[in-house]
């Protein structure tokens, strides 16, 4: 009901009225002038989300500032470029025909972030490995040739797998998250723009690991926790992309997986030695046959029920 | 959209079920993307050839397609349970996929609407997504997924596999439904707000075990849990400052049940214990867990001057849960603490747990010169789970009467984890960027307070110093190379299996030899030698990947995508064998070859043929072969109507567990209707 009311309220908002023509600062020409030469780009741009900058339909703080000159908001002032008809006089995100080397990622990102730095999805940008590794915004996004929202150059998974070849291969293992099947996407778990540590994994409910978004029954809190599950270390036991082992485990035999940690050690968690179990008997070779509440238990300190 | 779907299908292999529509200008834009994709669109000159630019659109644009048809699963041989655990595609009428896009610039209710659905009609992964927006007014997103999860592998949790019994005692046949929706009002405006709702529910049945002293019994279980999460927030967007405040809440319930009756369950112990056969005759057990949580999130971003950017986060959640558990079982059991034989047991448990969890971060980017920037980041994560449980147990001894006992337990888990990292990034030239840095992780964790053999509990510490380096090389538009290096000296870690004394290197490169031929490859190696008391954790993994894209003649007639990955993993770690308290070695080896190939042929008109498949072959601790070849056809019939058909084959074999192999042919045919 609340959502419906909000929707109704929103739909009732009046359409934006066109603003009178404005004069541009020195060096700027305005998008209409750009379209004189770049006719097709300019035509297609009308269906582009960035056109809201040109038309000032958007609400972003800087959109009014760039009203009528959206092209130059990204490519820089165009007067010199128009007069000399030289690519070097304008900022070319992909480089020019004569010099096809694109500018360094930092320069490209700087242009985009001039407006997008405050986007909610970028709030962890400085944590992101893409930014640190010189992956520019235009490696994934394209303003003029997008095939998928939000201005993506390819389907989201295909974009990721373009670089992360070995991760793509991990999904060919028999026990895998159903990415190929279309049940999920890389960006369901990872925020490509950056996320708090680690591995650019998103969070749910403010600060819980993203795995719990789907695996809610593992959330707890449990009176009797299993430390790796609670310390956000699902990958201690599981291969999140895909594994050759059942349950996407990192070991083929469960007893080894458990006992590698549960061995007397004075310096790490897992100091509690295992009870007397004869591992030579098949009864005791799969620990979770009995310790079924391995992610945490409401009843049993030994995670038995 | 169409070209993207095609590329995704090529990259992802055989399981894409929704063909890109046959209408439109897809071949040329597809070729452009295929050629540009591996090197990133950044390499494409801005003044691109005219044909790659979409034509101007009309004021109102509506397009989409729907794929529907029928699938047959034939020749299914081998283990049906394993087939369902890994593939789980069934036969019957299907809605393979549908999508529509509507653009209505200046529309009163929306100016953009996208709807997509895939895999409906009994398939295990149904999805639906709706996005609608009106520029400057609102943005709405609705995402629905219905995922079937079947898992019953005979080699997993099966003490009797050696005797030919193919019955896993940890099986699941469940569904999980997920709804995620968000409405943002006035996105990007100086002051915007949003509300979101998330629902996740799981239900189904399975097999689990009831554990008693001396025996464990496989029993049926019914699972039912649900989580609902609500959140709302405000964003203040100024030119140099952004503030986000979010408040949310979550409710959770879990009502698992266990049951058995009408027979005698001998359990996994097949020999008497102290002269007694330990048997289960009847069981009814139920969990009733109810929990809730509040959570808050605050984000402050600032760019007070062009050379400085900082971000701070504060995240807090306080989940708590109350649970009760009841169990009634009859049979013949032994209580080993007193060696007492009993025939009935009544348990009732009440528990409570809470977990305040706070996290915070502060990150600063300082641009010292136009070419040099320094990023410093700090993160802290603190949580404290405190739980209490009371358990009342009543035993009915075989000798008569009753025996009652009440147990009260408390437990806790405390984590304090911090990370600080500094990176310096220098753009040496337009084609070379170098990076160096240092990361320090520190913290401690305590578990188990008053239970177990150690009253003080278990404690672990993490102290990890990591040196970081890297670089990016861009040589003209046809070659690029990225390098990442990381090394850590010996330090303390929370877990015995954590990497402590390691070196890691990653190389990633792309080279476009010709306009129609692109290579990309990556190499990663991780080497760890952490000394432990009884030896060392010897861990090494290598991954080498190579991909090739060949699109002669701009791919107008055909194109080829090949990818291959060789991955090896070697892990050796001593562990304490519980039966005799001696140290044995846990060895895990994996030597895998993974690959895929796709040939896309355009025989003429708008017809398309895809041939290809993927494979994974591993040797080592669990030798496995998994093949997935496929063929797909799309033949336009008339206008926006097309016929489609595909064949897939799944073949799975395991050398150590021959009973888990399966193979299956899948045929499907159907129509695509576009608009």
Structure explained in plain terms:
Chain A is built from 14 helices and 6 strands. Chain A is mainly alpha-helical. A two-stranded antiparallel sheet of chain A has the order 1-5. The longest helix of chain A is centred in the middle third of the chain and has 12 residues. The radius of gyration of chain A is 27 Å and the shape is elongated. In chain A, 55% of the residues are buried. About 5% of the residues of chain A have low confidence. In chain B, a hairpin with an 8-residue loop joins strand 2 and strand 3. Chains A and B meet through helix 1, helix 3, helix 7, helix 9 and helix 10 of A and helix 1, helix 2, strand 3, strand 4 and strand 5 of B.
Q: Which oligomeric state applies?
A: heterodimer
**Class from secondary-structure proportions of chain A:** mainly alpha
Total strand segments of chain B: 28
> How would you describe the shape of chain A?
elongated
Let me know the average pLDDT of chain A: 85
CA-based gyration radius of chain B = 30 Å
Helix content of chain B: under 10%
Give me the number of helical elements of chain B. 3
Low-pLDDT parts of chain B are 1-16, 23-58
- Biggest beta-sheet profile of chain B: 28 strands, antiparallel
Q: Topology of this structure?
A:
The complex is a heterodimer of chains A (305) and B (675).
Chain A: H1 2-11, H2 31-37, H3 39-44, H4 51-55, H5 70-75, H6 79-84, H7 105-116, H8 129-132, H9 156-163, H10 165-170, E1 175-176, H11 186-189, E2 203-204, E3 208-209, H12 211-214, E4 224-225, H13 227-230, E5 242-243, H14 254-261, E6 296-297
Antiparallel strand pairs in A: 1-5, 2-3, 4-6
Chain B: H1 2-12, H2 26-36, E1 61-78, H3 80-86, E2 92-103, E3 112-120, E4 125-134, E5 138-151, E6 171-185, E7 191-212, E8 215-237, E9 241-254, E10 257-260, E11 279-305, E12 308-335, E13 340-354, E14 357-369, E15 372-397, E16 403-427, E17 432-447, E18 458-475, E19 479-488, E20 502-514, E21 517-532, E22 535-550, E23 558-577, E24 582-604, E25 607-620, E26 624-638, E27 641-654, E28 662-674
Antiparallel strand pairs in B: 1-2, 1-28, 2-3, 3-4, 4-5, 5-6, 6-7, 7-8, 8-9, 8-10, 9-11, 10-11, 11-12, 12-13, 12-14, 13-15, 14-15, 15-16, 16-17, 17-18, 18-19, 19-20, 20-21, 21-22, 22-23, 23-24, 24-25, 25-26, 26-27, 27-28
Helix pairs in contact in B: 1-2
